[in-house]
């Protein structure tokens, strides 16, 4: 295939694959916590890391990861302890991060405003071997946390009070989710861009939720959707000469729309399956009637059982 003959596209496809896996893997916890826009805020802070990378002549991805982690920890601390002024503090953190990045990249000797485009919206040709090494190492950390601690992270994301009662270190796990989200932003910025990475963390999860009912199924389908749109968007951007980040996000939104349209008919099919007569003597209901239990005297008793084991949310 022509697309695999060039070294930069090989690196871009590998990076896209890693991004497609990691972004939904941590995004599902952010969606569960109703922090869907957290990735967008971290992306703003990461700009300062990119600027520092150019200023200090180091790899911008590693520097962005470091600054993003610091910013994410500050965001989580503000969420924990902030009161009425918490939203103002977050706004200053976001805007200050973006402004700091623009300023630092312009005063550096190796960067310019033109370099911002590849970090803000993604660029296929700028993924170097050093970038791929950094992306691979950071992606491994994200997958290890998101999969290895999925039960604990799910419990904290679902109900902090319940998790605290069960003895889980809620504060430490909350900080770990924030740190992992920051690392994911650094992983994805070369492919999707800092301004669009939040969409890849959220939209595949939202699309998967249209069809699934358990956490495990949602996790698997979201990662599958993320991987497909990341690879498809990268391939499309190569052949059509369009921005990869925007293409990936629009493909994810298109899948969300399609799955949303299918969710209604599928829900009706499931509802009919739940209320269908259960097999019993004579091929009818459990007591041989028309699918309902009969109380003594011939009166209808309990309604048909509508709860089944697969309705429960499982990790």
C-alpha Rg (nearest Å): 24 Å
Report the helical percentage. Answer: 55-70%
Q: Helix- and strand-based class?
A: mainly alpha
**Tally of alpha and pi helices:** 12
Largest sheet: none
Low-confidence stretches: 285-315
User: What does the overall shape look like?
Assistant: globular
Mean pLDDT: 82
The ordered H/E elements are HHHHHHHHHHHH
How many beta strands in the DSSP annotation? 0
Strand content: under 5%
Distance from N terminus to C terminus (CA atoms, Å) equals: 40 Å
Describe this structure in words.
- The protein is mostly helical and about 325 residues long.
- It is built from twelve helices and no strands.
- The protein has helices at about 5-30, 40-55, 60-80, 85-105, 115-120, 130-150, 150-160, 160-165, 170-190, 195-210, 215-240, 245-275.
- Residues about 285-315 have low confidence and may be disordered.
List keywords for this structure.
single chain, 315 residues, globular, disordered C terminus
């Amino acid at each position: 295939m022509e697309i695999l003959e060039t070294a930069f596209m090989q690196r871009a496809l590998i990076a896209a694959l890693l991004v497609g896996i990691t972004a939904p893997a941590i995004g599902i916890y952010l969606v569960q916590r109703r922090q869907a826009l957290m990735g967008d805020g971290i992306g703003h802070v990461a700009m300062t890391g990119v600027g520092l990378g150019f200023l200090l002549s180091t790899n911008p991805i590693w520097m962005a990861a470091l600054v993003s982690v610091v910013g994410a920890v500050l965001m989580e601390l503000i969420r924990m302890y902030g009161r009425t002024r918490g939203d103002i503090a977050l706004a200053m953190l976001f805007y200050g991060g973006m402004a700091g990045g623009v300023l630092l990249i312009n005063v550096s000797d190796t960067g310019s405003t033109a370099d911002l485009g590849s970090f803000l919206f993604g660029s296929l040709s700028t993924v170097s071997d050093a970038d791929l090494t950094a992306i691979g190492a950071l992606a491994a950390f994200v997958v290890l946390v998101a999969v290895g601690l999925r039960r604990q992270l799910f419990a904290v994301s679902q109900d902090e009070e319940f998790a605290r009662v069960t003895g889980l270190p809620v504060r430490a796990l909350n900080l770990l989710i924030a740190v992992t989200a920051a690392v994911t932003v650094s992983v994805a910025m070369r492919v999707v861009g800092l301004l669009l990475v939040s969409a890849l963390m959220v939209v595949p999860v939202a699309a998967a939720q249209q069809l699934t009912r358990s956490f495990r199924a949602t996790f698997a389908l979201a990662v599958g959707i993320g991987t497909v749109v990341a690879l498809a968007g990268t391939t499309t951007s190569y052949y059509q000469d369009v921005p990869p980040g925007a293409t990936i996000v629009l493909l994810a939104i298109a899948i969300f729309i399609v799955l949303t349209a299918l969710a209604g008919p599928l829900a009706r099919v499931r509802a009919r399956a739940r209320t269908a007569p259960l097999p019993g003597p004579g091929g009818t209901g459990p007591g041989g009637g028309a699918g309902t239990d009969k109380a003594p005297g011939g009166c209808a008793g309990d309604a048909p059982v509508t709860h089944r084991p697969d309705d429960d949310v499982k990790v």
